[in-house]
Amino acid sequence: MTIDADLVVIGFGKGGKTLAATLGKQGKRVVMIERSAAMYGGTCINIGCVPTKSMVFQAEEVSVHPPEPSVYTNAIRATADLTSGMRGENFAMLDTIPSVDVLTGTASFVDPHTVTVDTADGIVTVIGRTIVIGTGSEPTWPDVPGLRDNPRAVTSTDLLSTEDLPARLVVLGGGYVGLEFAAMYAAYGAEVTVLERHDAVLTREDDDIASCATELLAEAGVHVVTSAQVTAVDGGTVHYEVGGAPTSVDADLILVALGRHPVTADLGLANAGVATRPDGSIEVDEHLRTNVAHVFAVGDVNGGPQFTYVSLDDYRIVADQLTGAGSRSTTDRRAVPFSLFMTPPLSRVGLTEREAKAAGHRVKVAALPVAKMATVPRARIVHQAKGMMKAVVDADTDEILGAALLSYDSHEVINTVALAMRHGITASTLRDEIYTHPSMTEAFNQLLGALA
Known about the structure:
GO terms for molecular function: flavin adenine dinucleotide binding; NAD(P)H dehydrogenase (quinone) activity; oxidoreductase activity, acting on a sulfur group of donors, NAD(P) as acceptor. By secondary structure, the protein is of the alpha/beta class.
């Protein structure tokens, strides 16, 4: 079977599926290729943002500590029901468009315009005038003896489908995924140890923010070991060294959270002449076009920030190339926020104080513990007054350079800061705005009033 298409999208992630739906609704012949029916809708809704935040939310709802093991099991099942429903909705979003075909199977390039798809019903050949690659990323496994084929070693994907709470969880890696899972599983009653190879976690944050976050993790029951070099895994025992001194920790499950790499190895990109970087990511220009003019790459696979909302912006850029003026590019992006969903969440945008000073700015800084912010009763109302808020401002121009919010609802509030930064709203203006009460956003009245 051969299909001739205006657009071929490989990977059902945010950028690709949105582009497929948009062009399909315009009557273009579109083929969406996804290697697994369990991944309709992409990483975010199936094994990433949605299920993890569902698990975090349900952990925060626990009223008795430690909770009964059934609380965790029920949360896993409720999360599976949530993602299953969203997966079906995402499939229907494309399947109901007459000019769109969804093929389930492994895709591989034959030449720059031709892709074969190994489906359950046989090989399908797809010829595309435009091809968009959005195959995402997957967890990276380190070369540690006894780890790779160990039945107790799991990825975040595996852990999200494990219905029995591990009594002892060892997390390899103190990055954002590792810390998010560590905090989550500690809340469900697991004994959690994080092994981080660097001398601290959250090293990209200012020391005061990182210190506060580390203290909150410790209060939640997470044991963080820094400067830990894992040497081997023997069954459920993880061997590591700190300062050359050997030690070990026992685990029921070992979560490998040491970063992710682009999924490109089996795409046959060489057959299409598409250039990649040493890490496997696809080289693109500011319009997300590869070195092959009609081939684009969106989302994690192009080596950019691994966020769903960045993939959505990738869609906007490619759509502008295909149906618009062609002027939108990655250079338009500024003040892109991100969040680490511990409890409370840590959200940041822009420069840290350290980065701002290194860039030559003369800065004013405000950093306040949430518990001491009298004008923010919302945090007390919801019994989440832990954490701190920090803003960094250019002392000469009053420009907001960055903010770090380790507080309740920070993942919502940070968007206000990002919007202000993108549109040149000064710190003084944000300080003197009228906000709803009681809300976390009104913290800017007091926080920015404390700049010094």
